[in-house]
Amino acid sequence: METGRLRNIVVCGAVGLCLAAVEVEASALCDGTAGRAAVQFHYGIYDNADIDSGGLSNEDSLFSHFDVGTEQWGLRHQYRAFEFEEFASSGLQEDVLQTNGDVHQLSGRWQWRQETARSGWSVALAPLLSVSSNLLKEPGEIGSDAWQVHAYGEYQQALNQQWRFLLGGCVDDRFGRYRFYPSGGVVWQPRPELRLRLAFPDSRVDLDLTPRWRLYLSASPNGGIWQVYNEELDNLSRFRYRSLRLTAGALWELHPQWQIGLEWGADLQRKFYFRRTDGSAGRAAADSAQFAALRLVWRW
User: Fold this and answer.
1) First-to-last CA distance in the chain?
2) How much of the chain is in helix, strand and coil states, percent to nearest 5?
């Protein structure tokens, strides 16, 4: 990755850690995850993947998440660096994306949860700014396409001591479009150390091997929409990404306040939507890309 991108991540990390206060999982708003006060840093690198369409030959990327919050409030910064290798299309002198591949999502959130032994409600709301790095340097150029409001509501009802069903709805851009979609499924917890959430669109299983070791598997949509500036800073467009992310991870409690984790996973069914410099719409489907990631969590 380019030095500028790595420097950008370091700067954003310092900002995230200085914000002070608080959530637990670096997860999507709509999966209903809530936790104790914490600051979390999540950093991952993808391997190189082939692309056989859209004037692109291959792509690699990295990502980072910084999250601070409480059970009720939070702030989050999500960064993604897409680096494409381009080649000239037939009959064209050049085929350059009208896109800056360094993209950010900055959000605040409010969330509320009420639970009893038999049922529970979860509600969350998060205004979001989604832009490229160079557009952040020109805030006066940021348009309405850069702003979204993500939200979800979910109801859970116990069927017996082990099973609960859940039903709700969500608004976000994880499928590569800003849209509303229903959510629903079941939660099975046969013992305190094992919990399975089998639902659309987010599924997850957590297993506490010991009081200090947790293993987990998850499957979730992993897309987004960003308003982007081209390299010449004279044209705005939208860049969209869509994929399904599968993740396997382990989390180790070094101290009651500190946790460290490692993840391995892959983005599947990857698709990119963008504009070329001539203004025409472009799209490309990419091979699956594997990633390795590090998680650091500080609770208080």
Assistant:
1) 34
2) 10, 65, 25
Kindly report, residue by residue over 81-111, the tens digit of the pLDDT.
Answer: 988 877 655 454 455 677 778 999 999 999 9
- Structure-token pair, residue 126: 């998060």
- Strand-pairing partners, residue 45, are 62, 292
Q: Return d(Cα 238, Cα 121) in angstroms, integer.
A: 35
Q: Are strands 224-229 and 38-46 parallel, antiparallel or unpaired?
A: unpaired
- Whole-number Å distance between alpha carbons of 189 and 36: 20
User: How many residues are given for the chain?
Assistant: 300
Q: Helix, strand, or coil here: 151?
A: strand
Instruction: For CA atoms 25, 26, 32, 38, give the dihedral sign.
Output: positive
Confidence of residue 67 (pLDDT cuts 50, 70, 90): very high
Which residue, 259, 160, 174, is CA-closest to 212? 259
For residues 68 and 134, give the distance between their C-alpha atoms in angstroms, rounded to a whole number. Answer: 25
In the chain, alpha helices (H):
3-18, 133-136
**CA 124 – CA 277 distance, rounded (Å):** 38
Residue 162 pairs with which residues in a beta bridge?
none
Query: Rounded to two decimals, what is the model's pTM?
Result: 0.85
CA dihedral sign of residues 83, 84, 85, 86: negative
The Cα 222–Cα 172 span in angstroms is: 11
Q: What is the pLDDT of residues 265-285, one digit of tens each?
A: 999 999 999 888 777 888 888
